[in-house]
Amino acid sequence: MSKVAVVYWSGTGNTEAMADLVAQGVRAAGGTADLVQCSDFSADRIADFDAFAFGCPAMGDEELEDTEFLPMYDEVEPALSGQKVALFGSYDWNDGEWMELWEQRADEAGLNVVDSVIAKDYPDDEATAECMRLGALLA
Predict the structure, then answer these.
(1) How many domains does the chain contain in total?
(2) CATH number of the domain where residue 75 is located
(3) Is residue 94 within 8 Å of residue 61, measured between CB atoms?
(4) 100 φ, ψ to 5°?
(5) Which residues contact 95 (CB under 8 A, 6 or more apart)?
(6) Cβ neighbours of residue 59 under 8 Å, at least 6 residues apart?
(7) Residue 61: what pLDDT?
(8) Could you give phi then psi for residue 60, rounded to 5 degrees?
(9) Among 125, 5, 101, which residue's Cα sits nearest to residue 116?
(10) Please, are residues 11 and 65 in contact by the beta-carbon 8 Å criterion?
(11) Phi/psi at 78 (nearest 5 deg)?
């Protein structure tokens, strides 16, 4: 049974809804999940968990949110080596390129990214199922 941190930033509630669904997927698969806003997470909490899901919507020009989420992620990324990590988030424009860039960054950092999920706006039925599946992968 894994203890999973579901760490997220959400501006409109779409990525927060995805975070809740990922946590539900963890729990449905027998794990425990803590929903944590990114402002409440730091590298000193890494040892408390077995796996991690990070959620951030696309911002600006296909970027991670840079005032709260990105500083936290910059701090914790080096401590995630060897951990199971999943990425998720929502977008409203373009085609989700921010997730491809984020996955590439994580790969270059040597992270074990098990999968990622994106949703256009609020998670529809397909994105809901994918978020639940993502949580189960981490459990």
Answers:
(1) 1
(2) 3.40.50.360
(3) no
(4) -60, -40
(5) none
(6) 11, 65, 66, 98
(7) 80
(8) 50, -125
(9) 101
(10) yes
(11) -65, -25
Q: State how far the Cα of 56 lies from the Cα of 94, in Å rounded to an integer.
A: 16
DSSP of 19-35, one letter per residue?
HHHHHHHHHHTT-EEEE
Give the separation between CA 16 and CA 6, rounded to whole angstroms. 10
Contact 89, 18 (CB under 8 A): yes
Question: For the whole prediction, is pTM greater than 0.90?
Answer: yes
**Does pLDDT of 93 surpass 90?**
no
Amino acid at 115: D
For 94-106, how does the pLDDT look when each residue is reduced to its tens digit (9 = 90+)?
778 999 999 999 9
24: which residues sit within 8 A by CB, 6+ positions away? 33, 131, 132, 135
Count Cβ atoms below 10 Å from residue 136 Cβ, excluding itself: 17
Are 92 and 44 contacting, i.e. CB atoms less than 8 angstroms apart?
no
What is the distance, to the nearest Å, from the Cα of residue 3 to the centroid of all Cα atoms in its chain? 15
Please state, in angstroms and rounded to a whole number, the distance separating the CA atoms of residues 83 and 90.
23
Domain that holds residue 53: 3-138
Q: Express each pLDDT in 21-78 by its tens digit.
A: 999 999 999 999 999 999 999 999 999 999 999 999 999 888 999 999 999 999 999 9
